[in-house]
Amino acid sequence: MKHILVVDDDMMNLVLVKHALSDIYKLTCVTSGQEAIAALEEEIPDLVLLDIGMPEMSGRDVAAIIKSNSKWREISIVFLTANVDPDTEAECFKNGADDFIIKPFVPVVVQRRIGRLLELKDLRQRLELQLEQKEKQIKDVTRISITDALTGLFNRSYMEKKIAELLAEGCNGMLFIMDMDNFKQVNDTFGHIAGDKALQIFAEAIKKNTRRMDVVGRLGGDEFVVFFADMTDKDIAAEKAKAITESFLTQFRTVHCMDNVSVSIGIASAPEDGSDFTTLYKRADKALYHIKNNGKSSYHFFDEKKEIISTVDNTDVDINNVRDLIEGKMDTSKGAFQVAYDEFQKIYDFVSRCVTRKQQMVQTVLLTLHVMEKQEVAAEEVERAMMMLQEAVKESLRAVDVGTDYSSRQYMLILMDADMENGIMVVERVVSRFYGLYGHKGIELTYDIQTMHPELK
Fold this sequence. Notes:
By secondary structure, this protein is an alpha/beta fold. The chain has 14 helices and 14 strands.
């Protein structure tokens, strides 16, 4: 039942109002402005029926107090007045009235006017509530369309759009492309739920070290992007890269004891390295791949004078190091070799049984993908080429041969019971199959092969 506060110093008017409204509404009747304020403090009504011409505190004064109070300003006010001139009518509305009733009043008129006013108030409240709900739905849809569901960061398309807009406006800054080294091992060891948690920890570390003005997004997988607006000092950018890495690893290692998980970051600066998103992204991506192929777990600034895209100039060094790792001659706590130590150890256990017992000839092969000179190749294309290489290996090897990922662009093979000539034939078959699956498209596949002798143990 709606509640009406009736304020009138004339007891006859109060009786008439009670007669007209008490069957329909809950009524509180008072005879002065002071009593009206006290009643409002006790309970907020839906409507105040207020006499204008009261002594000491007039109805105008009471209305002014109601409208100035944040708790009461939404209460509907209907003035009771004996004046019928237009000036009085105008004054009523000027003082915050929603309507007025002329005294002496007819009960039916009072009922209809108050009933209509309260119905309109209810309708307005329902419409306002519907509008709020609609606005919330629109915000939710907008948020879903621009954010990554797992991390709450901007998704790829919106992140690219925002960065492109900033660059078009002439904004300087630093573009970071980051990924988690050896993220696949988190999924393989602990499962995808743990992998998702690791991505969320990574996202939180990035958010912790960025500002509202920066653009933060997830590319997909374990790759993230940040555009630090108005950042031009490389020393500051380097400190930011270290802070993100430290924040992530500190939290991650409280959850998982995996020392080989780290962060690699490629950085390009605008406008020095590019004034549009595509150019800046490609150059930050090249800087990232320089890190991925030179030890990981660090950051690198793009430098056009010194790097086109990182290539392995002397794979003999790599293959010798891998052999030393398998033989247990290296400190496995260093660099990229620790990343694949567990897998290589399994390979060694298998090889040691065959080579030492049967005096077999074994060939060790390192396959490497190179981006051809003066070619622009996106990171996604390098990943696709690596997938094609893995498929080519799978289709070309025998069941007794063993292979494993060595880096993001290299694959390690151990060819059992094969001399150098046979080993080269197998590897050439892999190369041929790779080009059949992938084609050239700016990426070249090379290999190094060495004999692993029985006496290696």
